[in-house]
Amino acid sequence: MSVRVVSRFRFVVLRMLGSALAVGVAATARAAVPTPEFPLTWFGNESVASTDGATGFLINPAAGGVRYPSELTLSLGEVEPDRRLLRGVWSAGGFLLGASDLEGRLRSQLVGFAAGSERLRLGWTGTRLDSRVDGDRVFDHALGMLARPAPWFSLGVTLSHAAEPRFESGRLGRTVTLGLGLRPLALSRARAHALGSRLTLTADLLLAEGAEREQARFRAAGELEIVPGISLRGSLEDHGSAQLGLGLSGTRAALHAQSAFDRDRRRRFASQALSVHRGEDATVLVGPRERRVAEIRIAGNLGDESLPGFSLFGGEASRSVAPIHRQLERALEDPLTRGVLLDLGGTSNMAQLEELRPRIARLRAAGKPVVAFLEQGGGRGDLYLAAACDQIVTTEEADFLALGLRAERRYYRKLLADWGLKIDRSSFGAYKSAYRNFSADSTPPEDREVIEHNLDVQQGLLVAALTGDRGIDRRRLLGLLDGRWWPPSELRKVGLIDSIGYREDALRMLGRRCGLGDKPRPVDLQHAPESRRAWTTRAPIAVVYASGAIETGRSGHDLLSGPTLGAETLVRQLERAFHDREVRAVVLRVESPGGSGLASNLILHATQRLKRETGKPFIVSMASVAASGGYYVALQGDRLFADRFTRTGSIGVLTVRPSLEGWYRRHGVRQDEFERGRYMGAWSLGRNWGPEFQAAADSAIYDFYRGFVTKVAEGRRLRWQDVDAVARGRVWMGEDALERKLIDELGGLEQAIAEARRRAGVPAGEKIRIAESRRPRPGWLERTIGGWLGEIWEQSAHLPEPGALYLWSDVEPED
Question: How far is C-alpha 424 from the chain's CA centre?
Fold first, then answer.
């Protein structure tokens, strides 16, 4: 549903609700208006403020379908002696289909939809009424609004019979119902998630248009969940009638029974309802067969966001790691999940994998064993993650090869010269190597120093993890990391794996460890979502993701660098996060090798301005790489976090410019020049840089470098000379960066969020929602047919602008 349609719908609903409410509240002289009656409910206390299942559409259209992703409810009730009421409703994704049959009296078909956030929802239902008495058929409308601004407070408003249809020789008059809901146990933020939904109190006021105020009806109700899955419900109306009900909830099904009595204690109504739903409820009413193990697939190059890897020089697409984090967290909290099978299929990006290992450790500490299964074998990343598990299983024909490290540098200066092309380049810092492969013929000593050092660090981190986790001999392990192909039997001898078998063997091993026998039931937790019990979950922490090469404008795609991070896009997301009244601290998650110096400066200025305007804490978390411009944008962080495998620093500046002078000369292209200004010819693509302009460019680049170092010194509260000593374009791994005070602490996004919570004063036990700002998805047309060809070509054919400054760092693969 488009934003325009939702806004228009919201305006119409609120206008009708406000109008109806004003009419209903006003006292009039139309005494002939009958006293309204609350509709017959199914579960005993369905208030317009508290209802939230599929049947919620019948009580408050805005509340329907909130609790479960999809639900089917069937009900059988006795309205009068020998007269039964059959009802059935199905809801999914905010839509509803339903039908009912009042024996010998009335049939109805129902459609509806609801939309909005957990704080404010609007809904509509349309009901076709077919009378069996006189054959009348009408279409009735109802509108609803549900506001839940806090975990403990809810407000519901409904307008019934909005069009006042004529039915069975009369008119169905408009009625308005106002409802208030209170959850006293949710007032404690630390206990709101665990206990908040156990006790719900409601009060509803029913008003009819044109009726006297004395004709308004009032109902108070309550629901108490004695233990998870067993609930008592009841309500009392002002004229003395009462309802009592009992609810029994299983994981994916529930049974409800209730009875209504008049003031003389005679039963007016009784019903039984069966609900089956997709969302899972926490309950004590669970059988042994419900217990399961989670099966989580991890493969590919992990990243903060899913990004395409296409560029002129190749590249590797990344898969978002967020779903894996959510599954591991769900497995830890879910009482039905007794263990985890990690299905590893060739995964990489050691910094992202480093952040998964603590989650595995928490599962094991909670008594939930984790078994890794490597069906096809694996590489360094697979072994690094698998080593954190209880046991490792692989197949007998699995491949384990190229387990060492290798970095390559290719140089294209001579090739370009053969084509008549030349890349002019200026940089400051002997270690600033980006684009040097187009202007040099071999790797200089400084680049060799950095490459060798970082390879040593990465090798040392992996060896330390494997020897520590598996208790194996360091010398024998290094033998396996020499790059040769190794059969699984050799890895088992050394102790890198525990068993050779198949998936059923890994499941049997896991089942025995977690007490579920030889054939535990594996479940993909992504297809087993939790039900939504909380009314509202606060979002006091915002995380803004900054992934890709930094450029001006909006995020897009660069022919040379692949996915780009647009400064305009990121600044807009930062402004939204900082100015959100609910957000009390902001985390910037950086996974970028840098890019445009101007774009980086615009982002840095925005963070400085937003911190000053709002006074909110600003924490930075660095993923696999936060180098050069990626480090520059982090300088306003109150605290900087990086993983051990994070490559950061690369403090330096460079500029590049292609020249076609040789190509023009080779192909007989004549270029006449007319200019004003001594150095203007150096900006022409038809002229190489001469020594004089090269010196001028180098001098300008050094000035920009000094500015970069100054900003680092100010942001990190260091002396200029100390920053310069570790700058000059050099890339540092996480522990090196910590030692040189370029970061404050080793840790991943989880630790950065914890720091943001601490600074924002969020209680440690409070369950919160993270307000995330990710890379915008392409528009519908672009996703469907590739977008407008002109825009795509402009983004894809982007080349470095002559004279543009770049805070750019080469990124070496770690495995």
Answer: 43
pLDDT on residue 787: 42
Low-confidence ranges of the chain (pLDDT < 70): 1-35, 39-45, 80-81, 309-316, 558-562, 778-806, 808, 810-815
Contacts of 771 (CB under 8 A, 6+ apart): 539, 541, 542, 543, 577, 580, 582, 583
Q: What's the pLDDT score for residue 28?
A: 35
- State how far the Cα of 486 lies from the Cα of 374, in Å rounded to an integer: 14
Nearest residue to 510 (alpha-carbon basis) of 658, 343, 640: 343
- Given the DSSP bridges, would you call strands 175-182 and 153-160 parallel, antiparallel or unpaired? antiparallel
Would you call 332 exposed, middle or buried from its count of C-beta atoms within 10 A (0-12, 13-18, 19+)?
middle
- pLDDT value, residue 45: 58
For residue 721, report the phi and psi dihedrals to the nearest 5 degrees.
-65, -35
Cα separation, 270 vs 260, whole angstroms: 6
**Predicted pLDDT of residue 620:** 98
What is the rounded CA–CA span in Å between residue 723 and residue 742?
Answer: 8
Beta bridge partners of 771: 542
Rounded CA separation 305/646 (Å):
16
Q: How many CB atoms lie within 10 A of CB 673?
A: 9
Place of tokens 């200026």: 426
CA pair distance 792, 105, nearest whole angstrom: 62
Question: Residue 377's CB: how many other CB atoms inside 10 A?
Answer: 23
Among candidate residues 690, 656, 700, the one with its CA nearest the CA of residue 802: 656
User: Cα-Cα-Cα-Cα dihedral of 731, 735, 739, 745, to 10°?
Assistant: 110
DSSP string, 149-212: EETTEEEEEEEESTT--EETTEE---EEEEEEEE-GGGGSTTTHHHHGGGEEEEEEEEEETT--
Instruction: Tell me the per-residue pLDDT of 251-308, one tens digit each, with 9 for 90 and over.
Output: 999 999 988 888 877 777 888 999 999 999 999 999 888 999 999 999 999 999 988 7
Partner residues linked to 545 by β-bridges: 589
As given in the structure block, the two tokens for residue 284 are: 């004590």
| Measured distance CA(332)–CA(319) in Å, rounded | 23
Query: Could you tell me the two tokens for 14?
Result: 């609120």
DSSP bridge pairs for 339: 293
DSSP codes of every residue in 750-767: HHHHHHHHHHHT--TT--
Which pLDDT does position 786 carry in this prediction?
41
For residue 171, the model assigns a pLDDT of: 83
Contact 522, 292 (CB under 8 A): yes
pLDDT score for 595:
92
Which value, to the nearest 10 degrees, does the dihedral of the CA atoms of residues 343, 345, 347, 353 take?
10
Phi, then psi, of 484 in degrees rounded to 5: -75, 165
